[in-house]
Design a protein that fits this description.
heterodimer; A: mainly beta; rod-shaped; B: alpha+beta; nine-stranded antiparallel β-sheet; five-stranded antiparallel β-sheet; 4 helices; about 15% helix
């Protein structure tokens, strides 16, 4: 089984 | 004062159709450079990044940077009122709380305008780091949409595996499995009908069918789509909008538990 990763952490908040 | 006139309202309609599944509302950031939109879906699984260059418009004037928060369902209602050959002019005063869309038929025989309320959206701007992707795949957008649609019948996820031999899309579900392999084509004089693979490292990543299907709503915008893959970073699905800009989707992979 796999879980859906989230995008938080991939991008930096400007 | 902001004023942007686009020769084809149908193009903007296609952009809206391509993002309204993922976003309920979004801020359109207007500057000298053009119109940009960047927003994550509610689940923070995908990000939409739209860039419409000012020189892609017939007329473009932006005296002060302006952020226009809009409800996309309402915006769709407005664009449903435009004819397929109409031009559209988007107008807003500085610090206005409304935006006006004017649709003009080609011979000026019909002119309509719609004023829509703007929203104050508290949206953060995200910096997207430069990534050296392991694999960059260009393929016909219709082919990508077809593969995602076909495989979505069988499972909830699609594994995209890329090697120097080609790219493979796979799924599995209760009734069985499905695989679609595409080899690189040599049809260089028709680039938008070709499959072009630029591979540094083989890569295999798993993505949600539901999100991939939403991204393929952008198919009418472009004949070609670019998929950029790398371990541990989001997939980028990019549609170039001819002479106007691009629409990119970022999607977090599924990971093994």
């Amino acid at each position: 089984t796999s879980t859906q990763a989230r995008l938080d952490g991939f991008f930096t908040v400007l | 004062m902001f004023e942007a006139r686009l020769a084809s309202s149908a193009t903007f309609k296609k952009v809206l159709d391509a993002i309204k599944d993922l976003l309920n509302e979004a801020s359109f950031d207007c500057s000298d450079a053009g119109i940009q939109l960047q927003a994550m879906d509610n689940s923070h699984v995908s990000l939409v990044s739209l860039n419409l260059k000012s020189d892609g418009f017939e007329k473009y004037r932006c005296d002060r940077n302006l952020t226009m928060g809009m409800n996309l369902a309402s915006l769709s209602k407005v664009f449903r009122c435009s004819g397929s050959d109409d031009t559209v002019t988007i107008k807003a005063q500085d610090d206005a709380d409304t935006v006006t869309f004017m649709f003009e038929a080609k011979k000026q025989e019909k002119i309509s305008d719609y004023e829509m309320k703007l929203m104050n959206l508290d949206q953060e701007h995200l910096g997207i780091p430069e990534t050296e992707f392991s694999c960059i795949i260009k393929l016909p957008s219709g082919e990508f949409a077809r593969i995602v649609r076909d495989l979505s019948q069988f499972g909830e996820s699609i594994v995209i595996s890329c090697t120097k031999e080609g790219v493979k899309f796979s799924t599995q579900g209760d009734i069985g499995t499905g695989n679609v392999k595409l080899a690189q084509t040599n049809n260089f004089d028709k680039e938008d009908q070709s499959v072009i693979i630029d591979m540094q490292e083989p890569v295999s990543l798993t993505f949600s069918c539901e999100y991939l299907n939403s991204f393929t709503k952008a198919t009418p915008l472009s004949n070609q789509v670019t998929l950029s893959l790398c371990d541990n970073v989001p997939l980028v699905v990019e549609y170039q909008i001819p002479d106007l800009g691009h629409l990119k989707y970022y999607l977090a992979p599924k990971i093994e538990e």
